[in-house]
Amino acid sequence: MAIRVEQDCPHCGAAIEFVETDHVLACGYCGARSLLQSAGPCRYVLPMAGGASSAGLLLAPYLRFKGTIYLVRGETIEHRVIDTTQAASPALGLPPSLGLRPQAMRLRRIVSEDGNLFLPQTLKASAIVEKAAMVGGLAPLGCEPFQHRAYIGEHLSYIYLPLVAKNRGVYDGVTGERLLELDGTGEHGLSGRRFDESWRVRFLSALCPQCGAGLEGAGDCEVMTCALCDSAWAVGPDGLAAVDWQMQPATESTALFLPFWQMTAQIPALRISSFADFVVRSNQPFLPRPEWRDRAMSLWIPAVRLRPKIFLQAGRQATLGQWRLAPVPGRVRPNLFPATLPASEARQAVKLMLAASSASPRRIFPMLPQVRLTGVSTRLVYLPFADRGHDWVQPETGVAIGKNILRFGRTL
Ligand SMILES: [Zn+2]
Ligand SMILES: [Zn+2]
Kind of pairing, strands 169-172 and 148-166? Predict the structure, then answer.
């Protein structure tokens, strides 16, 4: 279930409600659309009991992780969907988890103007996610080795619990529960630091940097498109950055286009520098054609959030069928399905997709720890899909995605 956040419109100040996975804020009052830009995970605070203000209070950090953990181990790829909210500070008395609280409440973004102090985060995000993986049965058991682990489709944020100090004790600001006795020794680790400027979120206008037209894209879109100049844009550290994109030409049967990240690279550890090399090294049951020696090798990662099994399957089929594709410069049209998986997450998936595309786990999996991709180039490619009853089917590569699954992916 998605977390709901309340945010003031950066243009007119009206309260907008959105879900945590949204990067595009649309204001129902003034009509302005803004893009969120933040340097790291977003930070929210739970509302105080009785609607009281949490300004000036001490806030305790919790890390929220939502996504899929994949583990390549032995000759299999295991996966698990994880949704966890764990205390990121070891301060005494804090509830270890926020449970379902964040999902039942409307959160607010933390802002420096509120003058809060923040308990330092002493547990690393990776340690907390690892713990969640362990609970999911995916951590390496004892000395059983694994070849690769990846976290994909993740949503990472910090949720703060307001703490109230009164009557020589510390109280949970949301439930009013007494968490800790203050004995005056100061040995409870409850000293906070001030708002860090790197946490500040910026709002960008959803206008095409090239032609000034309004950019198109739903709230959870990672890549916005401009129908006027056929350009594509993603929010980067320095604002909107152009996304290199193409599309496979439509046929008569095309009903919609689904985006994939095409990650073209060389893989020296496996001596792969062409598609022909890949076919041979990964032991495919077909022979490489001579022209494939001049064809660069790409890993194709779905740019939409899908269930783990379908995500791997769709990427594998597009990767194996890439020689049938000849994308051309893209034209924005109404039936482009929004790209909801950013390029940064697709990069986390390259080794995983290499493993999933291999016909011989024994040859490829043991090499994964040494695998480094070199000369990587990233491009968003829209592939045409035909309507085949319950499925969307990609004619060139045979990728088939259930219609109900695509709906699921948008709320994962
Ligand atoms: Zn507004
Ligand atoms: Zn434009």
Answer: antiparallel
pLDDT score at 410: 56
At 265, phi and psi to the nearest 5? -165, 170
Ligand 2 centroid to Cα of residue 246, in Å, is: 16
What pLDDT does 241 receive?
A: 96
Q: Which ligand is nearest to the CA of 210?
A: 2
Asked if 213 and 229 touch (Cβ cutoff 8 Å), the reply is yes
pLDDT digits (tens, 9 = 90+) for 125-136: 777 777 777 766
Q: Return the DSSP state at 318.
A: H
What is the pLDDT, as a whole number, of residue 412? Answer: 41
Which of 102, 101, 68, 98 lies closest to 83 in space, CA to CA? 68
Residue pair 208/228 in contact (Cβ under 8 Å)? The answer is: yes
Listed residue (21, 18, 23) closest to 34, CA to CA = 23
pTM of the model: 0.91
For a pLDDT cut of 70, what percent of the chain falls above it?
94
CA of 107 to the centre of ligand 1 (A): 19
Distance 160 CA to ligand 1 centre (A): 26
- Residue 330 CA to residue 244 CA, distance in Å, equals 10
Contact between residue 108 and residue 194 where contact means Cβ atoms under 8 Å apart: no
What 3-state class would DSSP assign to 353?
helix
- 8 Å CB contact between 94 and 188: no
Contact 312, 153 (CB under 8 A): no
The pLDDT tens digits of the residues spanning 70-96 come to: 999 888 999 988 888 889 988 778 888
CA–centroid distance, residue 208 to ligand 2 (Å)? 5
- Run of H or E residues at 129: helix 125-135
Taking a 5 Å cut-off on Cβ, the residues next to ion ligand 2 are 208, 210-211, 213, 226, 228-229
Q: Which residue, among 37, 61, 55, 38, has the nearest Cα to 118 in the 3D structure?
A: 61
CA dist list (Å): 19 to 38, 127, 215, 307, 357: 16, 26, 20, 20, 34
The identity of residue 214, as a single letter, is G
From the CA of 26, the nearest ligand is 1
Determine the distance separating the centroid of ligand 1 and the alpha carbon of 11, expressed in angstroms: 5
Angle between helical axes of 350-357 and 308-320 (0-180°, round to 10):
70
CA 409 – ligand 2 centroid, Å: 28
Q: Which ligand is nearest to the CA of 11?
A: 1
